[in-house]
Design a protein that fits this description.
This is C2H2-type domain-containing protein. It is built from 25 helices and 18 strands. By secondary structure, it is of the alpha+beta class. The chain folds into four domains: about 200 residues, no CATH class; about 55 residues, no CATH class; about 180 residues, no CATH class; about 90 residues, no CATH class.
Length: about 725
């Protein structure tokens, strides 16, 4: 029998389906009866597995609310109306503990469940809808959450806060010459954190490092719909932990001006409104940072007095241009958003630091006051990010999708210049012939659609192209090119890709010492020299690329300021689009998609929160991973020939498998020679098992099958196992 769980209802039912139909008559009000009854009994009690976590303003304990009459910039002519949605401030989830056993899963059907979740007012999971701009009778809204509430959600994760670092902690080593060197790894080992700590003082004052990532993403395959999310993380979290998805949260979704308003007669006005909208949105989201005089972060065993500052803003080049209000065109007179170098000096790898003038709030304000904006490629607007000089070069957009993309395209043109017509066809054939291997992208169709390749595909190409281009020019050279000349051109191209791989692999180190940074700078200069000298004759841009300049002259300083590149790359942030934006969009009905996306993200956050505060601590189970898999048979040394003959008759053997059988006996003899006190009787009694695959480091798979998905998969490799 099934009893109705609602108050003042004594009905019972023999079938579960009848109970479900009955509960629909109670609608949502019954849920509040259940919740209120729980709150009366347990409003003070805390769940043992949860951690008390409170963020309050250290000075006047005020809440962050946007003033209805707030005007970000009175000097501009935009219409600014900022409003907050009406919300219920009962803070049920903050003040009470929801007992999962009370909310009977038998009555939580989909519709009522969504109504219940939507009605919950958990303060740090609320999103605000703020009217930002009215342009040509069209209103634009910013969906966002108070930035300190987003931080609260992050730090309420016990695993995250347990790994947080609050002190400036530079690391030093003594090199082989006896000299002391600084080690740059985590953000708190960099110079920026040290300067921030000095600005607030030492002692009990701690640094709360805020990282923002902003990037537009398409929502469908045709690219007709897009959203512009902003994510938040903390530099206090170690790099390895921050690279996980739960160490980042969605802070807001920026509005976009509709393209239909972008007409020929108002292009300048439209572009100005677009920049204004971008700056206003970030001003609203970051305003609490520079208005705050300190936060009390309370955990169950300590109180941390933290001072927030925006340490990093991560994005691609268009995002950085919007952030710093510099011209986005790479052909402008001063195209670098970090310094004021001219376009003619972008390909100059010999620039010294004294020749590079950084863009700072002071000198850019002088430029604006003197009406020199166009000469310095900057828009004449107030830049709210002058308070936070935090834009950093991003490896994924600069290297994977930028410089390496250029290098591959130039290399194909270079091959076409010195080879006959089928030189590019031979390039694609060699690339397609590379056999299957775990975590290796196979380009069966060549590079015909390279414009749509992702960063992961370009990283896969780095592993392969050295072997693809080696000897290609020699094999397919033109008739008017001598063998000596072909070998020279071939060697230069291969050497360029080897230099790139050496530099790129070095950039992925977790830590850098001062001497290693000097070596890294030499690697960059070495590669850049080869890149410029080899491709300048066939390029119409004279190799004047902002990404090339930034990588040469600004990446080393960024490491010294912010720690290793792995801590401020967008590689791990790009995957957030799928979870926070694209998946919720596909669940919506495409009408007012932004609000539906926000609601779905909030629902997911609430469910995770309820699960966290009502579930006992989980015991982590370690999955047993097999080292060897797919046994084919077993034999002794006496029956070896019989096993091989039978295996040959029942299986098609690849050439590598034939060779493996030939060397197996010699390998076993060498193995037995290493074992002390082994007798001939022990050797004769040894049973040898033949497996089809072996798992190495839980990632790589070594296969010994001659037919795997209708293709040979025999790995020509020897493994020493202790």
């Amino acid at each position: 029998m099934f009893n109705c769980p609602y108050q003042n209802c004594k009905r019972t039912f023999s079938r579960h389906a009848a109970l479900r139909e009955h509960t629909k008559s109670h609608k949502g009000q019954a849920y509040w009866e259940i919740l209120n009854s729980v709150s009366e009994d347990s409003c003070i009690e805390k769940v043992e597995c949860s951690r008390e976590f409170v963020i309050t303003d250290n000075v006047d304990e005020r809440e962050y609310n946007v003033d209805n009459d707030h005007n970000v910039d009175d000097d501009n002519n935009a219409i600014m109306e900022i409003v907050n949605e009406d919300v219920v401030n009962e803070n049920i989830a903050d003040e009470s503990v929801v007992d999962r056993s009370v909310i009977d899963e038998n009555i939580m059907d989909r519709v009522q469940g969504l109504e219940f979740v939507s009605s919950m007012d958990i303060k740090h999971l609320l999103y605000l809808k703020t009217k930002i701009l009215k342009y040509e009778d069209e209103e634009y809204f910013l969906y966002h959450r108070p930035i300190f509430e987003a931080i609260k959600e992050l730090l309420s994760n016990i695993d995250i806060i347990n790994h947080c670092q609050w002190n400036c902690s530079p690391d030093y080593i003594t090199n082989e010459n006896g000299h002391r060197e600084c080690v740059y790894g985590e953000q708190w080992s960099g110079m920026l954190w040290e300067n921030a700590q000095k600005s607030i003082g030492t002692g009990l004052k701690k640094v709360l490092s805020i990282i923002l990532y902003s990037d537009a993403t398409t929502l469908d395959h045709f690219g007709k719909s897009s959203e512009h999310p902003v994510y938040l993380s903390l530099g206090n979290i170690p790099n390895w932990r921050r690279n996980k998805r739960d160490a980042k949260v969605l802070l807001g979704i920026l509005p976009k001006l509709k393209p239909l308003h972008n007409r020929n007669e108002n292009k300048s006005e439209f572009a100005s409104a677009k920049r204004m909208l971008y700056q206003y949105c970030f001003d609203i989201m970051t305003k609490p940072i520079y208005e705050c005089d300190g936060l009390d972060i309370k955990t169950d065993n300590q109180i941390i007095w933290a001072f927030p500052f925006l340490s990093e803003f991560i994005g691609d080049l268009p995002e950085d241009a919007s952030l710093t209000l510099t011209y986005s065109s790479s052909r402008s007179s001063h195209p670098c958003y970090i310094c004021t170098v001219t376009i003619d000096e972008l390909n100059n790898i010999n620039l010294s630091k004294s020749q590079i003038e950084l863009r700072t709030p002071n000198n850019m304000q002088v430029v604006i006051n003197n009406n020199l904006c166009h000469e310095y490629s900057i828009h004449p607007m107030r830049n709210i990010f002058w308070k936070f000089p935090a834009a950093v070069p991003d490896r994924m957009h600069h290297c994977d999708l930028g410089l390496f993309n250029y290098q591959v395209n130039f290399a194909r043109n270079y091959i076409q210049l010195y080879c006959v017509k089928d030189g590019i066809d031979e390039f694609d054939k060699r690339l397609a012939k590379i056999p299957r291997f775990p975590e290796l992208k196979i380009f069966k169709s060549g590079l015909g659609n390279i414009a749509r390749f992702t960063a992961a595909e370009f990283r896969n190409m780095m592993k392969q192209l050295v072997f693809v281009i080696d000897g290609l020019i020699v094999a397919k050279r033109k008739s008017n090119l001598s063998l000596f000349q072909a070998k020279q051109h071939d060697s230069k191209l291969v050497d360029l890709f080897v230099s790139w791989n050496r530099m790129y692999i070095f950039s992925r180190k977790d830590t850098f010492t001062d001497s290693e940074l000097d070596n890294f700078q030499k690697m960059i200069i070495d590669w850049a020299n080869k890149f410029i000298n080899l491709f300048t004759p066939i390029a119409d841009t004279e190799m004047k690329y902002p990404k090339l300049h930034n990588w040469q002259h600004h990446i080393i300083d960024a490491i010294r300021n912010y720690g290793s590149i792995n801590g401020f790359t967008t590689e791990t942030y790009e995957s957030l689009h799928k979870f926070y934006i694209k998946a919720p969009y596909r669940m919506s009905n495409r009408r007012d998609a932004t609000s539906q996306i926000i609601n779905l993200v909030r629902h997911d956050s609430i469910l995770n929160y309820l699960q966290k505060i009502t579930s006992p601590p989980s015991i982590k189970k370690h999955r047993q991973i097999r080292t060897l898999g797919g046994i084919e048979g077993s034999f002794t040394l006496d029956t070896f020939n019989d096993f091989v003959d039978e295996y040959r008759t029942t299986h098609f053997l690849a050439l590598e498998a034939e060779k493996a059988f030939e060397v197996l006996i010699d390998s076993l003899n060498q193995y037995f020679d290493l074992i002390e006190n082994i007798t001939n009787k022990d050797i004769e009694a040894t049973i040898i098992k033949w497996y089809t695959s072996a798992f190495i480091r839980e990632v790589d798979t070594i296969r010994a099958k001659s037919n795997y998905y209708n293709a040979p998969a025999f790995s020509d490799i020897a493994i020493n196992m202790n």
